[in-house]
Amino acid sequence: MPLYKTITFNANTKLLIWKIEESFDVLCEGIELTDHCQDRVHGMKSDLHRRGFMSIRHLLAKFGYTDFDLFYDENGKPHLTDGKHISITHSYTFAAIIISDVEVGIDIEKQRTKILKIAHKFTPVEEYSTLANEDAIVRKLTIVWGTKEAVYKSFAHPGISFIEHIFVEDFRLDDQSTSAKVYADNRSETYNICFQEFEEFTLVYAVIS
What does the pLDDT read at residue 81? Predict the structure, then answer.
């Protein structure tokens, strides 16, 4: 089974990345789903989405959990029955989960030039004018987008705007870390942000400070 990478942020926070190479049928082997999740996965039209869904269950198993240990609240945020914090992501051929004793969020994004067209919706684009070339701009924008996605998943407050409520501290591409703050409805949080790039994908995870 292709466990792609294990990252330990600290003694209480760990994440696992899966490279999705198997067929859906192979990924179903040894995995038992709740009735609700069986209905969900069989209702998915995309084979890649179905494989991503099952890959997450294999990652849960690596942590010692099953599908029966996972549930979602009214905002769609995942939780574990033992009270640990979890965040989940999958994009194309990668899936990942992070589990911690504190609030966390995770996101994987494929690096694509189409992000240039939507950048103004989530960040002040003038801040990227000093970067050397389009590749660098795409990479940095993808990190910023992934950061805001990860924070959004963790904060889990309805009505959050990426550009109005989530702010990312500036960073260099080789830093591999930064911080982010979110403000909404008299509530605010600060997150430690870590990011990595591999195979034209960007991984970002957020751990509450």
Answer: 97
